[in-house]
Amino acid sequence: MRSFDLAPLYRATVGFDQIADMMDRVLANDVAQPTYPPYNIEKTADDSYRISIAVAGFCDADLNVEVKDHALVVSARKVEDTQERTYLHRGIATRAFERRFQLADHVRVVGASHADGMLHIDLEREIPEALKPRRIEIAKADSVSKDVVDAKSVN
Q1: pLDDT, tens digit, 9 for 90 and up, residues 31-88
Q2: What does each C-alpha distance from 81 to 78, 84, 85 come to in angstroms?
Q3: d(CA 70, CA 144)
Q4: Are 64 and 76 within 8 A, CB to CB?
Q5: What's the CA dihedral at 115, 54, 46, 68 to 10 degrees?
């Protein structure tokens, strides 16, 4: 596998730290991508999204959802059951996990709900007024004052 050194990018750019960090995360090949628990990401409206994670076997107290450093971190730790059980087949995995989702700028977590073995996390993109496109009125040519100096009078 190739290894990329992004040090020149850090030296030659200003304000692109997030892009370089994202490339570092994507190109890091030493960490295996987790596949547990399975999840879906769906677009529910123009600026709304929902992440649904299958968390069968976990209760609300076992789950933790938090946002830190533009990342949504979902983790779960099952409290050990004091009751001794003998399983003939154990197909429901209740092992601890931590799943991270990198959030784009201006995306915030609106809420989370847990029902029927699914954890639903609702996200919304809120673009600040300063970044929204705005229409600029075009003034009529007659109403614009002319501050042009005649070239013949100057020379």
Answers
A1: 566 788 999 999 999 989 999 999 988 999 999 999 998 889 999 998 777 678 888 8
A2: 8, 7, 9
A3: 46
A4: yes
A5: 100
Contact status, residue 43 vs residue 49, Cβ threshold 8 Å? yes
What pTM was computed for the model? 0.66
Domain architecture of the chain: domains with CATH: 1-33 (no CATH), 34-133 (2.60.40.790)
Amino acid identity, position 47: D
Q: How far apart are CA 21 and CA 16, in angstroms?
A: 9
Strand order of the β-sheet with 48-54 is: 39-45, 48-54, 118-125, 107-115
**Structure tokens of 143?**
């109403």
**Which helix (H) or strand (E) segment is 66 a member of?**
strand 63-68
The residues, any chain, with a CB within 8 Å of residue 127's CB and separated by 6 or more, are: 47, 106
Q: Are 57 and 78 in contact (CB under 8 A)?
A: yes
